Amino acid sequence: MKFCTKCGKEVIEEAQFCTNCGNNLREESTAKPKIDPPVDLDATNPSLDYDINSVTSESKSNENVSGHLKLSKKNKIVMAAFAVLIILLITTVKVGNSLSDPGKLVTRFQQDIKTNNTSDLENILCSNDTRLNVDSKSISPLLSYFKSKPTYLTQVMQDLNADVMSPKDISSLTAKSDHTLTLARVGKSFFIFPKYKINIKPSFIDIKTTVKDVSFSINKTVMGKSDADNSTKEFGPYMPGTYSILANYKNKYITLSKPYLVDLIATNGVANISVFDDMTYLNITSDKPDADIFVNGKNVNVKVKNASHFGPIDSSSKIYATCKVDGKTLTSDEYLATTDDKDAYLSFEGASNTINDIHAQLDNLLYYYASNIAQAVNNGTPSYIDAYVAYGSSLYNTQHSYISKTYDSGIRENYIDSKIINYNINDDNKSGTITSSESYTIFHTNGSETPSTSSYIYGFKYDASIGYQLTSISKAK
User: Fold this and answer.
1) Distance between CA atoms of residues 423 and 438, nearest Å
2) Rounded-to-integer distance, Cα 21 and Cα 290, Å
3) Residue 25 lies in a domain
4) Per-residue pLDDT for 50 more than 60?
5) pTM to 2 decimals?
6) 458, part of any domain
7) What's the maximum distance between 2 C-alpha atoms anywhere in the chain?
8) What are the backbone angles phi and psi of residue 219, rounded to the nearest 5°?
């Protein structure tokens, strides 16, 4: 049934105009219907069959349908948001489970070692000792150790895989833990899932020294120095691995430098080394208390009489003393220090015996020379002194001329005595000078006698085939 929207009169379905009011029904069919409030044009008009209640009921029905449509859209939004939340929750659970899988962490660690991925190792390694710096640079000693000892890496992987079944809590690990690397729980991810890392047990070095002020460096980085004699000092913590410890010590007697190789993994985290344990103090004495002490060929400007607490020195030190005797430098027997010795005696007996022997030879040389020159003058035979004077030397030429001229002049000599009043022997023991005192009686041609005592300075040298001979002469002042 169709009604005119203008007057409300019933029209046939095919009508294009209202037969009552002439309203163009074609325009109304293309436009959104607009229902005006019903107009009572003819209340008595029985042909006006317009049901207000039916229109109101239809309108309310349309409103209810629209309301139901709006509620459906809200439900769709809520349902979509809920679906997204579920997806996010499922994704978070999967990611969380993946990140908290200790087995994957161990596999990741093994791959990082193989590829030398230090930046990723920095993320999965840690230490419960906050003093130990764990970064891509500091872990290099550990990586080097793995590469040099692949069997040790195999053992580490076995231990970590065993830890996967029952990871330790990081707070329970101490320096006394069995393993250098341990899979440990370090907290939670997303406040729910357990978080794991591989904990590194820190390593320490205990260095014992016998003397104070020994300085140490590790892989060319300064560590510190000893604080007292006969003390032990701890250094660390360090990343596990192999290190070179260089110990240095210097005093006015010696300069020492010695490397020590330390394996901080084989020692299970605490390495004990003893440095310069052969160093000691000595009480030095000698038969020449005023002698000067030398250590390793260097004069340390300490006399024997002042060396009651000498040192410290080590067992590689060679100690001797020197002193001047008759212008010659005498050297004591050499002493090699040992750890157990507390006393050192520097003997000059050998040197004294040598110098005494030289003295005896020079004493004999002067005696035979002085007595034979008198005979040479008295006989006019210069060859009497040839065994005692170096051939071709200035003394040889001078005395040969003197002997001949004196003999020809008629003067004769009688040897009375000669002695050496001063020695000056060079350190080579093969040359030097002696100062003599010689006494003669001079017989003149007129028959008179004159006693004569003179002092001369003779030069001498050593000839291996002959012995000591005189080389020069000058009048002593």
Assistant:
1) 15
2) 155
3) no
4) no
5) 0.60
6) yes
7) 212
8) 50, 45
CATH number at 307 reads 2.60.40
Kindly state whether residues 388 and 399 are assigned to the same domain. Answer: yes
What Rg value do the Cα atoms of the chain yield, rounded? 60
Closest of 340, 329, 242, 268 to residue 294, by C-alpha? 329
Mean pLDDT of 155-180: 88
Residue 119, both tokens? 């930046």
| Residue 377, CA distances (Å) to 264, 343, 394 in order | 89, 59, 18
Distance in Å from the first CA to the final CA of the chain: 170
User: How many domains is the chain built from?
Assistant: 4
CATH number of the domain enclosing 366: 3.10.450.50
Per the domain annotation, does 360 fall within a domain? Answer: yes
The domain that holds 250 is classified in CATH as 2.60.40.10
Query: Please, are residues 245 and 233 in contact by the beta-carbon 8 Å criterion?
Result: no
Tokens encoding 10: 């019933």
For residue 461, give both structure tokens: 């040298």
Domain that holds residue 213: 203-275
Please report the pLDDT score of residue 52 as a whole number: 46
Beta strands per DSSP E along 109-192: 125-126, 168-169, 181-189
Express each pLDDT in 272-295 by its tens digit: 999 998 888 999 999 999 999 999
3-state secondary structure of 214: coil
Of 214, 428, 449, 250, which Cα lies nearest the Cα of 331? Answer: 428
Q: Do 186 and 210 fall within a single domain? A: no
Q: 94 is written with which tokens?
A: 């999967």
Quote the CA–CA distance of 244 and 246 in Å, as a whole number: 6
- Alpha helix (H) residue ranges in 125-245: 140-148, 150-165
Name the residue type at position 296: N
